[in-house]
Amino acid sequence: MKFLLAFFLFATSQAYTAEPIIIEIGGVRHQCTPIGNGNPAQCYNTAYSGPFSRDEALTLCQGAFNDSPAKCGIEAYRGRFSKSESILLCTGATTDTGPVDCANLAYSGPFSKDESLDLCSHNATERTATCAIDAYHGPYSKADAIKLCKNPRLAEEKMNDKRFTKDELNTLIEEANLKAFEKHEYK
Predict the structure, then answer these.
(1) What is the pTM of this model?
(2) N or C end of the chain: which has fewer CB within 10 A?
(3) Angle CA 52–150–136, to nearest 5
(4) From the centroid of its chain, how far is CA 11?
């Protein structure tokens, strides 16, 4: 009986271990790994027991595979973002705080709240914001920096060999803010 149960568990785990799927959207290649049906109810319960109404929780958790969008939304709302901004930022999130961390870092730099939300919505991380701040610090405009770094994979590739210490990142933010101030683009 134990052998049969062990074989069943092994066989079903192999069925759910799928090969990645490569798709191209707008000229950008994406690698996706099928992960099953997920559990949007877990996300909905977390969001609805928090600050979000029934409709807001449904919007936030649409298509969720776990409660990451709800945790992200609660964290965003606890900070500087309104409910609607939190929902925009965290719908589709696959990490609990990645988009919030990204938006907070981008906003501490030269980017406005709307630009930070645009850059960081869904699956961004602090690396996404660091990429955009670094790009803007260099030759790129704000719009170009956002466009360049909005895709988390491209941001990771661009920042792959760049690692900033906390002091270096603070200096980068100060210099990018100074550039925005001099160009009359500061928030």
Answers:
(1) 0.77
(2) N
(3) 120
(4) 34
